[in-house]
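Suppose a colleague, Dr. K., hands you the sequence of a protein chain of 295 amino acids and asks what its three-dimensional shape might be. Before reaching for any lab equipment, you can write down a predicted structure in token form. Begin with the sequence itself:
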Amino acid sequence: VKHLVADMLLGADPRSVTGIWQRMVDAHSAGRRGKSLSHAIAVLDVALWDLKAKANEEPLWKTLGGARPRANAYASSIGLTLADEELTAWYLRMARDYGLRGGKLQVGAEDDGDLRRLGRMHAALAQATPEPVLMIDADRRWSVPLAIGRLRAMEEQFDLTWVEGISRGRDSRGLKRLSDAIRGAVCVGKGFATIREFLPHFQRRSADVIQINVNAIGITGALQVADAAFGLELPVTLSAVPGNIHAYLAGVMPSFMSVEVMDPDPAAWIHGSDIRIENGWAVAGDAPGNGLAPT
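The predicted structure, expressed as tokens, is then:
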């Protein structure tokens, strides 16, 4: 971050966000930069959009051109770290206190345990809706052939909206085979830091849902990927980010589907978050910038 600021940001007009982002990307081609540098570019891009919105004295959703400052949200827990009772209690809280109608669960430890915990998540979310939206994240524990067998077994009991985290997300041929073999969708893109990483999945249609991580690709990169996904009629979902500031992007993504929420009340560790999770929505406020205040 310090290197990029010293070489490319000092003296630049922070309102020229897209141009600055392109300069940083061009100076460090995808073939030569690692994840740390990509994430540094993303962090600075988020900060520049915040500065631009503050200069405009308006919330980020308005600077981006959004028309609706709210986003459909779903609850996401690192389920493997929780006992069954804790898992149930967490999703019950998400359903009852925040109205969240969908949930994502990490799986891959054991067949029987995955089905049992998926059932617990379904029952908890049923407090908010009779038909909860269920997603699972295999967190790279399954190969494509193993995933096909396990997911078919799951789909005998549950309707899965999507599965993610299969085979590190790079195997576009294998994920196309997976998509053709199951009823649910295949979601790809959580760890991608450049639009080039999405291209094989666009070309082979191996992704049914495009997942964008603002922490990895920045806001400018996220908007580019969302536009490409729209051209292919693919829905877009946004990975969880600190402060839930991804809610600001929902109104400018034409094929937007949902945002992931891991912490519905981040005020304890992020000062002054202007995003509220209520009635199943992530609602962006009117504070200037991205809604986060300095400590």
